Amino acid sequence: MDRGMVIFVGALLTFSSSWLGLVLFPFWQLNGEQPYRKDAGDDPYPVALQGTALAGQKVYQREGCMYCHSQQVRSEKFGNWWDEHGQERTGADIKRGWGQRRTVSRDYIHDRPTMLGTMRTGPDLANVGGRYSEAWQHAHTFNPRVFNDWSVMPSFPWLYRKEKVTGERSERALRLGREWTVDPGYRWRPSAGQWDAILRDQGEAITARFLSDPAHSTAAIDPGTAEGKKRLLDFWLTTEEEGVQVVPTGEGEALVAYLLALRKAEVPLPEAKE
After folding, report:
1. Whose CA is closest to 240, among 195, 178, 189?
2. Which is nearest to 223 in space by CA: 238, 208, 237, 212?
3. pLDDT per residue as tens digits for the range 89-116
4. 81: helix, coil or strand?
5. Is the pLDDT reported for residue 82 higher than 80?
6. Is the four-CA dihedral 205, 209, 211, 216 of positive or negative sign?
7. 3-state secondary structure of 105
8. 36, 108 in Cβ contact below 8 A?
């Protein structure tokens, strides 16, 4: 019984001290942290998410993006990289352009929840809003293989809608070739038989479009040869589908708005000095 009491008290003290050190004391220390202003007239940093970006945070959370992407820029003293001379150096995150400084607790005071992440199957996103355009983000979300054949990131075609074009194409439509839009989520390529049938029906129009393109205007081509058919196919797959377009859904717009709002580690903070 005495030994059991000792074990109980020891376990209680162990868990209590861990809770005090890891939960209560940091809560007391950081609970009153406020947005930073260097001068009285400056805008506060950080600013709480609102509207579409706030809705996009929920989409980001629901789709599990934090399981493959972190949102924490590490110190210049952490992480190795090799320069052009083969010399090993530190500060990989900042060298990659993932942020201008390390992230600190103040960067997250408005985040509910805080999605620091624990893995980097993909790059860190703490400052992704300053790295890519809105159009890039939409195309990459629709299908990451548009930019990187080797990407292991899943496609998110359910955040986009394929529809008929009425009048002019929407300004929100993704500017992607048919190889990405015929079968959303995949890279489509017709079979040899399908391509022969397409050429019988549309061969002259496809060839004329090929020759009118500035990149091919001086290139002779014979659609009757295997090489000519391949060149026409490679070109045709990069052109947009006729009469249809892919546009983001409300959730697709929200997710990209959230990604564009991720601009941590840009504003200098006094506590972020190395």
Report:
1. 178
2. 208
3. 666 888 888 999 999 999 999 999 999 9
4. strand
5. no
6. negative
7. helix
8. no
